[in-house]
Amino acid sequence: MIHLIAAVDRARGIGRDNDLLCHISADLKRFKALTMNHTMLMGRKTFESLPGVLPGRPHWVLTHQADYHVDSPAVTLFHSPEAMCAAMKEGEDYFIIGGAAMYRAFLPLADSLYLTEIDEVFPDADTFFPEWKRDEWTETEREVHDKNNNNKYKFAFAHYVKK
Ligand SMILES: NC(=O)c1ccc[n+]([C@@H]2O[C@H](COP(=O)([O-])OP(=O)(O)OC[C@H]3O[C@@H](n4cnc5c(N)ncnc54)[C@H](OP(=O)(O)O)[C@@H]3O)[C@@H](O)[C@H]2O)c1
């Protein structure tokens, strides 16, 4: 199964200056729990925005650069989304973790969307989740978190499954 996982604001913003729009610690924990022991697929810029190679998860990184090199056995490089699809194995879960180019390429193939919906619009967002048609998806989960000392923003964990 192919899952897209993203934190989006109300205008589908996902990033700014090659960084996240905001850091929500509960979201980072959920990301870790969902992706642990599964392969994560990402664009080269998202890979470079990580603090490093994340433990316990193979990283598949998409780049056009033939001479791009990462010195880690956890990282496999690909040069097209099609090559990533060809490497997938039946019965396994794959998480598309961004950014915009990856979400665009894999949305038509996705079985589920794990979205953290931040109840805010960040006017300086420069990277966006693609438009998607809600009526093609069933919402199976929604957990609302209000603002508190740990969360500067109200947000909801939502899960949508393709009809
Ligand atoms: N809110 C969230 O959940 C979330 C999640 C992930 C990322 N983000 C944010 O999103 C931003 C980064 O996303 P982005 O869209 O700018 O970049 P990205 O998708 O992470 O990476 C783009 C790069 O991927 C490679 N690529 C893309 N399509 C390709 C193709 N068809 N064939 C070969 N290579 C291809 C290219 O690498 P080369 O240039 O090396 O060729 C391209 O420059 C950051 O701000 C990040 O923090 C947010």
Mean pLDDT comes to 97
Structural class by helix and strand composition? alpha/beta
The CATH superfamily title = Dihydrofolate Reductase, subunit A
CATH T-level topology: Dihydrofolate Reductase, subunit A
The count of β-strands is 11
Low-confidence runs (pLDDT<50, min 5 residues)?
Answer: none
Radius of gyration, taken over Cα atoms and rounded to an integer in Å: 15 Å
| Helix content range | 10-25%
What would you say this structure looks like, in words?
The protein has 163 residues and is α/β, with parallel strands linked by helices. It has a single domain (2-162), classed as Dihydrofolate Reductase, subunit A, CATH 3.40.430. 19% of the residues lie in helices and 34% in strands. The protein has helices at 25-35, 44-49, 81-87, 100-106, and strands at 2-8, 13-16, 19-20, 39-43, 59-62, 75-78, 94-96, 112-118, 127-128, 137-145, 155-162. The strands form two sheets. An eight-stranded mixed β-sheet has the order 6-5-4-7-1-8-11-10. A three-stranded antiparallel β-sheet has the order 3-2-9, with no helix packed on it. The radius of gyration is 15 Å and the shape is globular. NADP nicotinamide-adenine-dinucleotide phosphate (NAP) binds next to β1, β2, β3, β4 and α2.
